[in-house]
Design goal:
Blueprint lengths: L16 H10 L12 E2 L2 H9 L7 E6 L5 H9 L2 E6 L5 H7 L6 E5 L7 H11 L2 E7 L5 H11 L5 E7 H8 L6 H9 E9 L4 E2 L6 E8 L7 H8 L7 H9 L3 H7 L13 H8 L3
Parallel strand pairs: 2-3, 2-5, 3-4, 5-6
Antiparallel strand pairs: 1-8, 6-9, 7-9
Helix pairs in contact: 2-3, 6-8, 9-10, 9-12, 10-11
The structure holds S-adenosylmethionine.
Length: about 280
């Protein structure tokens, strides 16, 4: 094993490959697939990612999965506050050292999927002008995390998430419809703000990545989740068949009132159609 020796104190710029290796080596840490760990090891890329976000000295950033702190550090330099949620408790000592100079960083060791995001954001907004999410997401739960954020109804300014490029392309393709793309469309707009090569991660994933940016300008309709989940239960089935468990004997009347042909498929409906359907729940 290569030992990255350092004289004196650990140098900042965590995202530099030598610094990442030094920290992982010192704490005998190995990235684990179980938590989707692919650490960013290119300082320029990390700085550019933060530049694509609206983070400034009035912003509180929620970061999901700080890892060893590479992205956290660059966010901390630009933001007023960084609140991180990390599932892997092995990272406690690493983060205590790597981010010790940043007193605006708070790390909570908790599975992000169990965070009551709505109330967390309400609390943070009492102190900070705006709250946004910035994260290099663990790819094994990308959709679950995005859905958790959107359906929470949390009053966020925006979301900036590193995801697999292929996923980013799908989620920004206006002709592709899934419950997640419709949830995104219901609250705002999505775009790809930056492409990221697989070569700037350690370990390097098998695919390239991209930063998916979602700006939020509308409140989430909490009834939408039920309607979307029901409508997409079986993609090949008609909306009548998929929605009949939800609307029971009123299914035909509801579809009629919304001006929808019962033989349509879920992906043929617009977000407005789905919002109309929620009014009959
Ligand atoms: N932010 C670091 C970086 O950019 O180098 C690490 C990103 S790595 C792709 C994903 C991070 O999310 C890991 O630190 C992993 O432990 C963490 N993670 C995975 N599942 C999580 C969950 N459910 N809740 C919170 N953190 C999670």
């Amino acid at each position: 094993m290569v030992i990255y020796k350092r004289l004196g104190e650990f140098m900042k710029d965590i995202a530099k490959k030598t610094n990442t290796m030094y920290l992982l080596d010192k704490y005998d840490m190995q990235a684990t697939k179980k938590f989707g760990q692919n650490f960013l090891i290119d300082l320029n890329t990390v700085k550019k990612i933060v530049e694509t976000t609206p983070v400034d000295k009035e912003t509180c950033v929620i970061e999901i999965g700080p890892g060893i702190g590479a992205l956290t550090e660059q966010i901390a330099i630009k933001a007023k506050k960084v609140r991180c949620y990390e599932i892997d408790t092995r990272l406690k000592d690493v983060l205590a050292e790597s981010l010790e100079d940043y007193d605006n960083v708070e790390i909570i060791f908790q599975d992000f999927l169990t965070v009551d995001l709505y109330n967390v954001v309400e609390e943070l907004k009492k102190e900070y002008k705006q709250v946004c999410i910035v994260a290099n997401l663990p790819y094994y739960i990308t959709s679950d995390i995005l859905e958790h954020i959107l359906t929470s109804g949390a009053k966020l300014l925006s979301i900036h998430a590193m995801v697999q490029k292929e996923v980013a392309l799908k989620l920004t393709d206006k002709t592709y419809k899934s419950p997640l793309t419709l949830m995104i469309e219901s609250v705002g707009h999505s775009s790809i703000s930056m492409n990221v090569s697989r070569n700037v991660f350690d370990p390097s994933p098998r695919v390239d990545s991209a930063i998916l940016s979602i700006t939020i300008d509308k409140e989430y309709n909490s009834l939408l989740t039920q309607v979307l989940k029901a409508a997409f239960t079986q993609k090949r089935k008609t909306i009548y068949n998929n929605l009949k468990d939800l609307f029971n004997e009123q299914t035909n009347d509801v579809l009629n009132a919304c001006g929808l042909d019962p033989k349509l498929r879920a992906e043929q409906l617009s977000i407005e159609d789905y919002i109309n359907l929620t009014k009959h729940l």
